[in-house]
């Protein structure tokens, strides 16, 4: 129990000290200015009890002028804390430095009590809290001149009663302690500042990577519909459509433009959500509607290459993952399956549910990959290849697939043989939506 009381008292004192040191520091204050304000608080705070003690001591010993200077110094330190509280930062710095220079210079010349060493604190703090070279230069000249005058002018005891040697030694010791504390705190400030800069650099680097991924997704999702539109318009301009086919072609064009508009809306919505970095927001959702969107997206390409698509997915298959990211994964995998399938080939999509996982497989019977291509598949240096219809592949989509699968705590795997086809398999967490119908979507 005693240990708990000590811990409570220590925690309370630590909180009080922290609140006083951070007096006047608010969230809107720039980082370096906040640290400079804390440095000034750290300089003013110990001054209050120290100078107040010597004010009482000097008054009791008959040194009333020195006691008055000590009291004036105490009042200045208290005033600085109040000025920080009301956010008068520049005024507080100016008051503390100017008043301190005057008091320590006068007491050092008049009493030779070791106050000149406090001037070193003023000089160091001035250099730390000011950026203006003129202010630093003027204060440096003034403080250095005052310090040299106190050191080299002979002491005249008739000006004031002598201060005991132990008092001088105490002042020197305290001033050097303040100096060491100020330098240590400034070093701590610089370390925090460097850590903050490094943290921001890493955040910017991460956001740049996310931006590149978003551009890749936008390019991938828009490229396919635009290629279809370009092909249809080219055939129309070359007269390959008869008048009877014009109505059907116009209907296809209208459908594709509408599909492209929907794709742009989805991409923009997802990009807006990911402005501060790609974020994974898992939820329970049915897999079949997502697959239906993917198949509709590639409907014309399926028709052009005469690909047979077999889907064996129970309609009650439920995932717990980020729906948009799963859609990107499936679009990329299915796009690659179509791209590397021979005309008239077959692509199969299957899903099986376990107790905790759902396994989705996308299989084609196209060109396949060799061992070297498989090893480089999910790296930053994939082998760019061309599809069976001359489609250009970059490998960036598969890198996105792997990253999104990992974001959703899943597993992605691939098996392939040259000229035999490729199977991509992903495992994702099983969702929880009550479905009583065990039918299969074909």
TrEMBL record:
The record ties this protein, via PROSITE patterns, to:
HIS_KIN
Q: Which UniProt keywords apply?
A: Kinase, Membrane, Phosphoprotein, Transferase, Transmembrane, Transmembrane helix, Two-component regulatory system
Mind naming one GO cellular-component term on file for this protein?
A: plasma membrane
**SUPFAM superfamilies per UniProt:** ATPase domain of HSP90 chaperone/DNA topoisomerase II/histidine kinase, Homodimeric domain of signal transducing histidine kinase
Q: Which domain of life is it from?
A: Bacteria
Q: Which GO molecular function, any one, fits this protein according to its record?
A: phosphoprotein phosphatase activity
Using the record, list the residue span of the signal peptide; answer none if the entry has no such feature: none
Name of this chain's protein: histidine kinase
